[in-house]
Amino acid sequence: MAHVSVNVAQPVSFFKEGIVALVKTAVSDAIVAHKAKRQERRVAKILNNLDPRLVRDIIPQ
Questions:
Q1: How many domains does the chain have?
Q2: What does pTM read for this prediction?
Q3: Bigger pLDDT: 49 or 27?
């Protein structure tokens, strides 16, 4: 007789699902914030290296 194994998904409580969703959201938000901050630093670095007169013409008051 052949041996057959069946994988049964264990039920997960709503509390655990909520925690998992919260952690995933927090990690995702942290990554997005980090990328936005990094992009902001890149732009600031580029603008700092430009001639102030050119920056004044590009970015209105």
A1: 1
A2: 0.57
A3: 27
